[in-house]
Amino acid sequence: MKIGVFICHCGENISRTVDCPRVAETCEKIPGVEFSIDYKYMCSDPGQKLIKDAVEIHKLDAIVVGSCSPNMHERTFRSAAVAAGINPFLVEIANLREHCSWVHEDVESATQKAIELVRMAVEKVKRDKPLSKIKVPVTKRVLVIGGGIAGIQAALDVANAGYDVVLVEKEPSIGGHMSQLSETFPTLDCSQCILTPRMVEVNQHPRIKLLTYSEVEKIEGFIGNFKATIRKKARHINEDICSGCGQCVSKCPIKKKAFSSFEEGLAYRPAVYIPFPQAVPNIPVIDESVCTYYRNGKCGMCVKACDRQAIDFDQKDTMMVADVGAVIVATGYKLYSIGKQPLGSKYKGYGEYGYGKYKDVIDGLQFERIASASGPTSGEIKRPSDGKEPKKIVFIQCVGSRDPAKGISYCSKICCMYTAKQAMLFRHKVHDGEAYVFYMDIRAGGKMYEEFVRRAIEEDHVNYIRGRVSRIYEENGKYIVKGEDTIAGVPVNIDADMVVLASAMIPHDNAPGLAQKVGIPYDKYGFYNESHPKLKPVESTTAGVFLAGACNAPRDIPESVAMASAAASKAIILFSSDSLEREPVVARVNEDLCAGCFYCRKVCPFGAVEVRDIKDMNGVVYKEVAYINQGVCQGCGTCTATCLSKSIELAGFNNEEIFAEIAAL
Amino acid sequence: MADAGLTYGYFPGCSQKGSAREYEMSLLKVAGKLGIDLKEIDDWSCCGATSAHATNHRLANALAMRNMLLAEQQGLETLVAPCAACFNRLITTKAECRNHPESKKDVEELLSASVSNTTSILNVIDLFDKASNGLIGSGRVRDMKGLKAACYYGCLLVRPPELIDTDDSEQPDSMERIVKATGADVVEWNYRTECCGAAHSISRRDIVVDLSKRIIDDALMHGANVIIVACPMCHTNLDMRQRVMRRMYPSHKEIPVLYLTELIGLSLGFTESELGIDLHYIRFNMPNEIMNQTAQA
Amino acid sequence: MDELRRFARELLLKKEVAAVIGYEQVGEARTRPVVITDPDECRRLVLNEYCLNNLVVYLNRARIKALARSKEGIRKLAVVAKPCDIRSIVALIQENQIRRENLMILSMNCHGVVRDFGCEFNGDNLAAKCISCNTQSSTYADKSFGEVREIPKFTGKLEYDLSEIEQLPPSKRMEFFREQFDKCIKCYACRAVCPLCYCQRCITDKTIPRWIESSSHSRGNFAWNIVRALHLSGRCTGCGECERACPMDIPLSLLNRKMAMKSKELFGYESGKSTDNPTLVGSYDQKDSDELFM
Amino acid sequence: MDNKEKHIENGWEPKIVAFVCNWCTYAGADLAGTSRLKYPANMKIIRVMCSGAVDPVFILKAFERGADGVLVSGCHPNDCHYNAGNFHARRRWDLFHALLDFAGIEKERLQFSWISASEGKKFADVVTKITNDIKMIGPFKGYQEMNRQFTTEFPEQEKEKLVQQCTEAEAVNG
Amino acid sequence: MKNSFRNGFHVLQPGFGPAAPAKTASDEVYPNAAHSYIAKEVAAKTFQDVNLCYQCGKCSAGCPVRDYMADSPNKVVRFVQLGLEQAALNSTTPWLCAGCLTCSTRCPNDFNLAKFMDAVREISIEKGVKTKEKEISSFHEAFLRQVRLFGRSYEAGLVADYKLNTLRLLQDVDSAPGMILKGKLSVLPHKVKDRKTIKNIFGKTTHKKKRNG
Known about the structure:
The complex is a heteropentamer of chains A (665), B (297), C (294), D (174) and E (213). In chain B, 48% of the residues lie in helices and 10% in strands. Chain B has helices at 21-33, 49-55, 57-73, 84-99, 101-111, 124-131, 135-139, 174-181, 200-203, 205-221, 232-240, 242-248, 260-267, 272-275, 288-296; strands spanning 6-10, 36-40, 78-80, 120-122, 148-151, 185-186, 226-229, 257-259. In chain B, the strands form 2 sheets. Chain B has a 4-stranded parallel sheet with strand order 2-1-3-4. With 294 residues, chain C is of the alpha/beta class. In chain C, 31% of the residues lie in helices and 10% in strands. Chain C has 9 helices and 6 strands; from the N terminus they run αβββαβαββαααααα. Chain C has helices spanning 2-13, 62-67, 83-94, 162-167, 170-182, 189-193, 218-232, 241-245, 252-267; strands at 20-25, 31-36, 45-46, 77-81, 103-108, 143-145. In chain C, 44% of the residues are buried. Chain D folds into 2 domains: 14-139, Rossmann fold (3-Layer(aba) Sandwich); 140-174, no CATH class. Chain D has helices at residues 3-9, 25-34, 56-64, 85-102, 120-137, 141-151, 156-173; strands at 16-21, 43-48, 69-74, 110-114. In chain D, strands 2-1-3-4 form a 4-stranded parallel sheet, with helices on both faces. In chain D, β1 (16-21), α2 and β2 form a beta-alpha-beta unit. Chain D is globular and about 50 Å long. The interface between B and E is large, with 61 and 65 residues.
């Protein structure tokens, strides 16, 4: 085998600390090296031409490039090799820049290391085998996880492009948090008025299969070929028969046992309930934990009320499998739990604010419900404790957010805006009311956002006080809010009738669990990581899995919608061809040597290992061996290291190649 | 009755030998009854108190560490510091020396000795809540029903949160648990962790009287008939300063202030003079129900 | 013993099993493995303190496997196994090497075996693995024979004490093991008797690339013995056959025992306990110790 | 004079091999470069796809080839590009490390770390640490003694000559 | 007022707040406040960077003695952040701080403000800045004198010492007899045996005051 070695100076980036000519000279002496040269910019056009010419003149079979990290220019040099007629997998990169010249100062030792790095690459390339790319088919269907506004938007975009969508929502209805909101900033249009048409469209779209009250159990496979297992939880209502008349709901004798999570705990709901009037699908669900039937086998009022016999107490959870080519994760957020938390909790609550202890200290979503025309107070601002109209409300921003001491250092981004909106709504509804907002900074970056906040201050006379509140306590039915105006430098104590805490957006508790099922990384809070913060904001690091909305970071509605459309278009791009090309770095089993212990199968994270029977002359199975599905294998190589008889090899990183690298040390 | 053999080191603190004499009396009585052996550190010295850390943090570290060093040398693994301020000085110094080797080195040089810094420190609540869980209930001879106690933690018993892993710093409930075990009722009130002015007791009496008055008024407003404290400074400010309040505010309503140990002591059957309750400025009158109980017993 | 013979004979007569693998007596204090296919030969079977071999190793031998693929359609083999040997069966089932339904396990209620053939069975000569045995009988077997008797108290002395070696400083330990491994002549008897060394081609026989240097010098010997212990860690059931088979008297089970202890300590895993357990290698727990990792 | 100085005075520089995963640690090492962090030049990296793909025999081979220390590094738990490769690796290393420890190989010789793609600083710190650790305990005498059985038969010049001959032979044979 | 543009940065002109004496504050303007003496000194004493404080004011909002302070606690932090040494050292706020840790407990960015106040107070002693809160400083001095002498605080001695130094002879004169009667104010001090160590500690830690004012 004739090997060419090409050492790049990278301008002066490498040659400043590595004596490139000497490296090239020394490496020429390595057995097998036919040709060796150094050049100022190997990745430039003349540099690539130099490689091509050398291949032609010296009849090279393989090349080693000593340059920057393979993550930078491996692709460049591989295409140069292809242009010169060499298999792209007979190219090895010695990382002389990031791993050598940039991190060392002494020329002698850096040069020595560079030589050794090149020698390792030469030894590896000697054992490299030509490989060709693997083609895998694409299933043109998308799984959207989460039916909030982001999931709805993504599902509609993909479906309207002509592809099938499976939309999975864990609650009984789609709509997400947006359906709970009263009015939206900065336009103050009614949230449900703009959302419900979309929800209905999802339900009626022929290409969207809507699975509510369902959760993703696991996802196997890889880009273009995922297999999602979905658990459809038992509603105890036959969805095919139910007409959504609501008779069962009104007859249910359980009135005051369960709080409505849609109403954020401000109202009760029966055991059989539809979360909210505009729910999609408009089908009730029975809550086993409070239903009398499940507790003592009696009652059955709902059965009597239903003239279509849609109640099915025996309904069980069902599992279904969906083959999809791409996944859009749009699982959204929850609010920071502001009350006192148990000792040792990840996030420490605000004992000083008394949320949970005082009924009229509420969080942002609770206020949305109170202000919403469809809410428990029909849109009239009333205190949860006694139903009286509060005349003085204090809004506190940054509760949970920008508070590393409580566990979260990020800015929750939307609270400045929604607090301004809520204060404004209060002033519109209670004309003689006074609203105070304690803030640290007002972050109103966005179209018409700053103007909106100014309007709250200038037109609606909301009192903005710069300072964080230290403590809230109850005295004679009033809530004493102890603050400080840090601009005037004076203490401010307000006796409020109600306090609204603008609590931070945090990921759902089970966000890490879902991430592990889907196979995507997440940050320390549980927000899902994008592949690149600037250039790949909607891709996860797992190919074929895209992110939309607040599962990635705190986002408001327009941003979530934009992100959802972006994620949808990424999926649609993926579906534009019928098959995908994949790197041929996959594992193969030597069936003759395989002892059939199937440790490989146990360790494979992708379920790529299948069982293959080896039969004798009589057709009797005498041995079972492992077989690796080339389409499913992602090439991690965990099986190769686990295999006791060393019967599995990972193409591109086989044991012989690695041994050669070690031997070259 | 109690598991014998619970032995702890005991760091009294200066007040215990003077203005808070009754705190020590009651603590030792109660501990003895519950089978907890408190071994006073031999030749302990002042922890430095506020004055040291307020003006000279190296001095503060050295004074506090000297006592922990003595405990180490005398084989006492756990120290009970009944005074909340002493407790705070000890845990703060311990943490600083743990987190900052340079501080530890400095302290060791000042003391001319090496310190392993492993002594664990308990306050009075820890002692009764954690170290001898359930002992009070079983040994109770008097039901303190009829007392409506306002548990006053003050500032240093449950702070700083990073060094207190036994209770919440904002809504603590460990003292309430102990008080309930004596049979007394607890009231929900607002000033449980507000400061009484502490070290300004002498130098800025005006502040202390203001702050303490607010605390007392809030306790009264929420229906308390006794305030329970676990710190000699809190006691001084809340008990002794009521005399000044009476002079300044003629409408001032008095409320007795008991040490936590005194309350436990009463429920364990000790008399008021055994516990030193008669040394308080504001007289504590036992509610009739409890008196009757005692008569029957 | 008679019961075993009768039972084995029945099995063969009824054509329930293709063969019975058991022990036969040879001389006063010695047995050897025997594979019986003729019902009448069952009288050769014995059960006693000299049944040292772990017969499970034969279940994976190609020729014996072939017996159970005969045209008559009998898929079952019967094997005589001490309760401790049954742990090897469990391990093999976990590793997909044999199927329970193709196996008839004839167990004995064991009260210990001798350390080697030719010794008198008493406390002095008790096999090392029997010293702290807690599986005198097995519920996993199809049928057990004999009665449970007490194992004699060990009164002999072990040549090497694991805890003593653990106490040595690292350099001394390395010296000790090098000395021991240097005795190795690469006869692979340890591999041949091990029921869990069933690979078609052992890692040490692979030449491209050469995983383990096969000539017997220090470096190859060290690598071989380390890799052998590694491949058995979390799998070895402690039957001790390797050490008994070693002609150079290398204390091989020291490494195996240490790894078994570590598996238990780190992961709470004991090999050959139950077929329901996931294997140690091939499974993981997110809560596995992260101590090693910077 | 402490050990470290003694070893260095002899002009000895440790030889360290790192097996790192492609996705996290290799990228972390790249970041150390892009951030121009400095660390000793003793370590050479061998890239594998996942820390789960590192065979323990690789490490023995590295020692056989004269390595004084070995580092294995991959993605943090739960961050594995392949979901679980590093979990399997962790178990494997827990066992292997215990085995080598028992066989008398110093703990410092074989070290493990989790270094993510964003931890360039950590990579530099880890390399520095392991290099210092190895400098402290000195050359891997135990293994070198075993190696000597081979190398003594081939003095350095002889070896070079042999390589020369092989090269020539190869050139002739094509 | 001089509005200077040094190094292209607009340099802050302090002079706000009643307690920052205009004369001293406007004289000391640090183009790079993080390198100012006071910020560095505070950081060294407290092991925390003063820029941890992001001026939310939660400390001042919860401070029990806030009402008696001219400068809010966060303002003193701001002085140090800006390097306004005189303003920080002349403020009475650090002296009024009772060390109750309410601020430190609630600080969202884990800035230990009580520790910060200790440091500022200590620096002002080191620098010989005399505080207007003379009673408080005298009390601390009197207290430590007792500890230095006896190893423990000797309350009767302390009160006498304090009164002599502050000339507040009549305060609490009514309490003392009661206390003595109740045995709460012992007439003789409890002494520590090993007073050598105590003396040694004091000797090595006492600030070398520049008594020139």
